[in-house]
Amino acid sequence: MQELIHLRLKKLRSDAGLTQTDLAAKMGSGGYTKQAISAIENGRRAVGWNVISDWAKACGKEAEIVFKNIKP
């Protein structure tokens, strides 16, 4: 079963040893607050590629898109 993106992001933050407040501060002035981080992690707010990329960078990782099992 595919893991939901909000759970993946929450684990990424947790594994980086960051609190929601820490992550919001590291993500900078893109409207990221502790409340926004919480909403994302609880699946109440949709995320796009920019959020995923910024989140990964703040956690010391790089985001990438991988396509699997695609037949021409």
* Major sheet description: none
Question: Secondary-structure element sequence?
Answer: HHHH
DSSP E strands, number: 0
What's the number of helices? 4
Q: Which overall shape is indicated by the principal axes computed on the Cα atoms?
A: globular
Helix/strand layout:
Elements: H1 5-15, H2 20-27, H3 34-41, H4 49-58
Helix pairs in contact: 2-3
Provide a descriptive summary of the structure in words.
It contains 4 helices and no strands. It has helices at residues 5-15, 20-27, 34-41, 49-58. Helix 2 crosses helix 3. Helix content is 51%, strand content 0%. It has 72 residues and is mainly α. The chain starts with a helix and ends in a 14-residue tail after the last helix.
Please provide a brief summary of the model:
This protein is mainly alpha-helical. It is built from four helices and no strands. 51% of the residues lie in helices and 0% in strands.
Main attributes?
72 residues, 0% strand, single chain, mainly alpha, 4 helices
